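Before we proceed, please read the two lines closing this message. Report back on whether the structure tokens fit the sequence:
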Amino acid sequence: MTAARAKNRWLDHERGGWALLAVVAALVAIVPVFNLAVPPDSPLHLTTFTVTLLGKYLCYALLAVALDLVWGYVGILSLGHGTFFALGGYAMGMYLMRQIGARGVYGNPELPDFMVFLNWDKLPWYWHGFEMFWFAMAMVALVPGLLAFIFGWLAFRSRVTGVYLSIITQALTYALMLAFFRNEMGFGGNNGLTDFKEILGHSLQSDGTRVVLFLTSALALAGGYIACRYIVTSKLGRVVAAVRDAESRVRFTGFRTEGFKLWVFTFSAILAGIAGALYVPQVGIINPTEFQPLNSIELVVWVAIGGRGTLYGAALGAAVVNYAKSTFTAVLPEAWLFVLGALFVLVTVALPKGLAGIASRFRKVGHAGA
């Protein structure tokens, strides 16, 4: 890559990043006003359902940014990032279940309803502490991060790369899906965790709480993007990009490439866990289907459609694909997967750099015309 091309690519990423942050800032300013201040009978009113839907898209966008960090910049195609998303969601779900207390169907002040139904006589040891918000939030980051660290340390130390690493990550999420389906695990089995009442003493059904969750998701996306952008433009980012392009050469120069890959992979998993934790109180449920490999594969499609290796493109792809999913599953539910496949093929053939590459093309055309 020439210096001029590298500079143009850097400028494209800067413009795209600022555009993403501008959109997030606009949503933060507009959505609460149109939902809380505009009367419900006004055509400008934004329903709470729409606010929740936008919040869900923001969580997906943060998840896509997390995957793009490891796939686009380190070259690790993870087909199991849904694992970290789901683990973060379960940590939040456990906190929300502990907040129900005696208001559950069976009125048990300590055991969640599903445990009472299954005749559990006491709370499992790994549920203790989740009645405290700070502890649950620590687990949101610690559990996905620790799993990613252990998995990455074993995989990268063994120099597992390429398609083999992708298959192992997919096997990991599939194994966890099967485990969480079992009632003996103590996570609700097939039904998962649901019927949440409140968070930090505020009802999850109130418009104000929904708006706060939306704002928190928006800030998390902005913060996650800025952190990832800082990483990829730092010395660490230059090293991991070199590892992506020619790992053996980097290793021969004296760098321990496994450590760099492990650090970024772990950080990406923590971001995915945060996205999952913000997702659960907005949708009101977390169950083992979040672990299914199809979800992680669909996540890869979001990043590819938006533009791999751009970060902002990954967020764009997540929003566009999930908006299309919401639309087509309502209009043509049987045809959605065909639409998704066609969109992926179309972008791969016509726009190999994804939707983020469109702006770059327009800029080049404008310069040529000038």
About this structure: Residues 365-370 have pLDDT under 50 and may be disordered. The CA atoms of residues 325 and 331 lie 10 Å apart.
